[in-house]
Amino acid sequence: MMVHDEHTEIRESVRRLCAQFPAAYWREMDRERAYPTAFVQALTEAGFLAVLIPEEYGGSGLGLGAAAAILEEIQKSGANGAACHAQLYMMGTLLRHGSEEQKRKYLPGIASGALRMQAFGVTEPTSGTDTSALKTVARRDGDVWRVSGQKVWTSRAEYSDLMLVLARTRPPREGKKPADGLSVLLLDMREAGAGLTIRPIRTMMNHSTTEVFFDDVPVPAENLIGNEGDGFKYILSGMNAERILIAAECIGDARWFIDKAVNYAKEREVFGRPIGQNQGVQFPIARAYAATEAAALMVQQAVAKYEAGENVGAEANMAKLLAADASWQAADMCVQTHGGFGFAEEYDVERKFREARLYQVAPISTNLILSYLGEHVLGLPRSY
Q1: I need a labelling partner for 92 at 20 to 30 A (CA). Which of 209, 241, 260, 308 fits?
Q2: What is d(CA 100, CA 351) in angstroms, rounded to the nearest whole number?
Q3: With contact defined as beta carbons under 8 Å apart, do 94 and 102 qualify?
Q4: How many degrees, rounded to 5, is the angle at CA 291 between CA 303 and CA 69?
Q5: 215 burial via Cβ count (<10 Å: 0-12, 13-18, 19+)
Q6: Which residues of 86-118 are buried (b: 16+ CB within 10 A; e: fewer)?
Q7: Mean pLDDT of 72-99
């Protein structure tokens, strides 16, 4: 397995922590559609969710590569980092564009676990990935912004204290792109009042996702992140981190599926010999392995460019595309290798299979990544 040497100790620590939450724990969480509170608390107490927060605010002050290593190892252990990964990929928006006052107010609490920042309010029912067409608005009313509108697929809103909300604060200026006039607000949901409504959405995997309704919800004016009207740029920089970290999760998932399939193929005997001796079983595992290792290299390249402060749009998107494809290829292979047992809850394959399928769609679909590469990297005509 190819790893960053400087993260070996972090990976080992994550593996030790995850060993305290065996497969039976995750089966129960999945069966009950429950939030893994104990697991998230353990990660918090170990400092893993504060890895990107500077030391002066109580965190570790490490780079994106450390966060990627943490999430990859969580997934490779058979756990599900989706319960808390947003606190890592959302951090860049606050760290890069938040004021010093905002950082002093919120980061120490996030680092200690007193506050959870897990909810990301961007997607809307009518706009989907066309973020510039969102309809949620925030109007200035003295010393507060009042937010009205609706978000969907806002995961972990029920288990978060803070939410980053993208809302339109004014119409686009003449000659500017439609995303002009969008702003990011840091909403403390504990103080939102009756105007905030959260409704769970039951999905095929245990993802704690919701739709959120805002009815004149007040947000203090000082909770505007960066400049008014420039929020879309801030969100984009955060989305690159999100795609890289999700890609790292996919690599972890793929490696879990491959290990699971290899072990089963060695042990399962049919017609008097292990099924892994048959090339029809062996070759799909080998192909999944090759695809995973190639995708892992792309993730490493994206991390390196991100940490160097370079434009990482192409690499972040390619990392997410290739890693999501590799994890889905490995998932399908793992089910096929296990045959009927792949559908049995006790083998954990079907749970991870459902979880892995998500990343062909979220946080951005593979087709939209291809459109981005076609237009922005290859210079082809815009397709939409």
Answers
A1: 209
A2: 42
A3: yes
A4: 30
A5: middle
A6: bbbbbbbbbbebbeeebbebbbbbbbbbebbbb
A7: 95
Residue with tokens 């392995």: 289
Angstrom distance (rounded) from CA 235 to CA 243: 12
| C-alpha span between 241 and 235 (Å, rounded) | 10
Strands (DSSP E) along 189-307, which ranges?
Answer: 196-200, 210-220, 224-225, 269-270, 273-274
Please check whether residue 4 is in contact with residue 300, taking contact to mean a CB–CB distance below 8 angstroms: yes
Phi, psi of 278 (to 5 degrees): -85, 130
272 and 345 within one domain: yes
Q: Is 384 a domain residue?
A: no
230 secondary structure, DSSP code: B
Residue 383 belongs to a domain = no
Burial of 9 (0-12, 13-18, 19+ CB in 10 A): exposed
End position of a domain, from candidates 211, 229, 247: 229
Q: How many domains does the chain have?
A: 3
Which of 88, 112, 136 represents a domain boundary (last residue)?
Answer: 112
Which CATH number covers residue 149?
2.40.110.10
Residues 367 and 345 in one domain: yes
Q: Which domain holds residue 185?
A: 117-229
Query: What pLDDT, in 10s, does the model give residues 277-316?
Result: 999 999 999 999 999 999 999 999 999 999 999 999 999 9
61 pLDDT higher than 90: yes
120 φ, ψ to 5°?
-125, 100
Dihedrals φ, ψ of 197, to 5°?
-125, 130
- How much is the pLDDT for 238? 86
